[in-house]
Specification:
Elements (H helix, E strand, L loop, with lengths): L7 E11 L4 E7 L11 E7 L4 E7 L9 E6 L7 H6 L5 E5 L16 E7 L4 H15 L8 E8 L8 H10 L3 E7 L11 E2 L6 H7 L7 E7 L1 H13 L7 E5 L7
Parallel strand pairs: 7-8, 7-11, 8-9, 9-10, 11-12
Antiparallel strand pairs: 1-2, 1-6, 2-5, 3-4, 3-6
């Protein structure tokens, strides 16, 4: 089947990095102009003989970068990720020509602290924030009061696909703090970082970083259970609804 209609690019995979058996990164040439804001998502697709299958993915790359980067988790029974998992460098996929989403970094409101909580591939929009701000900071264009506090969780350390990049930036700039935690530390005896589910550490680190409802926005991205748990924690500790934003990566099946 040809690329269906004028709303789509025929994008090409430029590189692929496998993180684990079910996690990988791809960099893509979208095939045309693709303006977006850090935190937005793109819609990728694969054309099969039967139909065109699409799904939205948060963009890892920053708007100034020449490639589009995505961090993808294999859903074995999913419609699209098994097809994307088979795709290799040089293969073509589809990409809708416009970015969407409002999960961008709010630098115009009253909140100067941003508590960014993620599970696994939910780190993607925060990496885009950091890459964008880092470029501005190096150019002397970002010197304002905004500070980012990233709390990132996964089951195993090798699922923390951008922890080295974020740690490097955090060591260089005054506006980024980054902490990782894993919930299955027995699978890596060399792990020296935090342990436990990321939602279990929200109170500890919000207190440690002196983050308060009056000056801190809470952003949640990734697993819907984490999002609901942290929403409850935030509400119990004084955060209002307008101070908590979320982007869930799937809707859990009803039981």
């Amino acid at each position: 089947m040809p690329v269906p209609g004028s709303k789509f690019y025929s994008a090409q995979i430029l590189s692929r990095t496998d993180i684990s058996e079910d996690l990988w990164k791809i960099r893509v040439n979208p095939g045309g102009e693709f303006p977006f804001k850090a935190g937005q998502y793109a819609t990728l697709g694969v054309i099969t003989p039967e139909k065109h299958i699409e799904r939205a993915y948060s963009i890892v790359s920053a708007p100034h970068e020449e490639f589009m980067e995505f961090f993808i988790e294999l859903v074995p029974q999913g419609a699209l990720t098994p097809l994307l998992y088979k795709a290799q460098v040089g293969d073509q996929i589809t990409m809708r020509k416009s970015a969407k989403g409002a999960f961008t970094l709010n630098r115009s409101g009253k909140f100067t602290n941003h508590l960014l909580i993620a599970t696994v591939t939910g780190i993607a929009p925060y990496v885009s924030y950091v890459r964008s701000l880092y470029r501005e900071w190096k150019a002397g264009e970002f010197q304002g009061p905004h500070r980012l506090f990233v709390l990132e969780g996964a089951s195993r350390p090798w699922e923390l696909g951008y922890s080295a990049e974020l740690a490097k930036v955090a060591s260089e700039v005054p506006w980024l703090t980054h902490v990782c935690t894993i919930s299955r530390p027995w699978e890596d005896a060399e792990w020296k970082g935090e342990t436990g589910r990321v939602d279990e550490l929200v109170r500890k680190y919000s207190d440690m970083w002196n983050l308060k409802p009056e000056d801190t926005e809470v952003c949640l991205c990734g697993h819907p259970d984490m999002i609901e748990n942290v929403k409850g924690i935030a509400k119990r500790h004084g955060w209002q609804k307008d101070a908590v934003r979320a982007e869930a990566y799937f809707v859990p099946a009803k039981t």
